[in-house]
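for the writeup, i need someone to sanity check this before i put it in the appendix. the sequnce is what the collaborator sent (i think, or maybe the updated version? ugh). structure was predicted straight from it, no edits. if anything looks off just tell me and ill rerun, i have time this weekend
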Amino acid sequence: MPVKLSDLFGHKFVIDSRKVQPGDVFVAIKGNNVDGHDFVKHAFENGAYAAIVEKDTGFENQIIVPNTVEFLGQLAKTIVEKFKPKIIGITGSNGKTSTKEIVWSVLSSEISAFKNEGNLNSEIGLPLSIINSYRGESVLILEMAQRVVGDIEYLCKIFPPDIGVLLNVGSAHVGVAGSVENIFKGKWQIVENSKEALVNFDDERMRCTKCRYFGTTGGDYILSKREYNGSSTILTFEYEGEEFYYQLPGYWTKPMALSALVAFGIADMIDVLFNPLNLANYKPLKGRFNVHRFSKGYLIDDTYNASYESFKAGIEEILENFPKPRYAIVGAMKELGEYSTYYHKKLSELLEQLDGVVVYDKEEESKDISCSNIIFRSADDKEIISFLNNRLINDSFDGVLYFKASRAVELDKIVEEVLNRKF
């Protein structure tokens, strides 16, 4: 007898036939370069229980739907509507994942809370995360990503936020979106499609009648001070004329501190105690301004991804809080399209403030990094590592090495090699 939709509940949904385990449901998605329907046979060979497809593939245990991506969204929407949780939607050009993790850490100390895993934040990944992992928690904390205008609106229609959070709007993926104006228009859709909104007061473009604000220069929730004492960071928040102090272990960057402030604001908006207990054990995600003691100085791994704005934030942190000499090991920023040369030139101006720059020319866009303080550049990772080990680093190194580039550059592999150096 053919499989029915009701038979699929309790099974894991998978979109990569290579990752199918016995009992999984394979969803065939037609992409720009690969058509999942070509791998239905492989999925069943790996033990798939059923397949969701858009056309007849000749297998009995298949369910044919008009659009497999929309099917995932509607199934996830049905699951969420059954439990009626409060939904927090989070987007921005930078810091979405870290903010989601920090908000979840705070709220889960007091109430049952769900967050989408890792960076499963797209029209495919977010529904998959709900279908496979949501178990009726009372609050959903959902990171929502945008590549083109309309992505956020689509996600908000599936999972309508009670509170939409817009962290910032910058140049990330401008080559895909077409312009920074388009990026803002798309990100602002989280405000337009939410009951309430919490947005960045420091960005004058973000103003609306249903908005509440977080920021450093004003707003409802203000980060008024941040101090690092060598082992912990003391944050001072202002709200309704009162000051609140929180001491958190380790080094908290300004973006991380603002993420904690967002959590403070959300807790207030949904009337939950702001409990920073879990933040005592919070560790930044790998490649997001990870501070390592290195010889007598520091190595900072900020290689998870890169945009002009995130570079600017990282360099400001280094200039304000880390000792000289300050060196940056950098690579290209990707997905900037026709704006690539412009933003790499702007990056070059930022890098002029440092004592030296090493450029890893693995991706062609990095050719436009042209600051006057470049001390070495190469497209060969072994040459970069050799230069760092033999010319820059010694047993008495007491400055900082800052690593940053887009993920495609794979600068993280060089970081691992350098961290393994024996002093």
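The first helix runs from residue 40 to 45. The domain at 5-64 is CATH 3.40.1390.10 (Udp-n-acetylmuramoylalanyl-d-glutamate--2,6- Diaminopimelate Ligase; Chain: A, domain 1).
thx in advance!!
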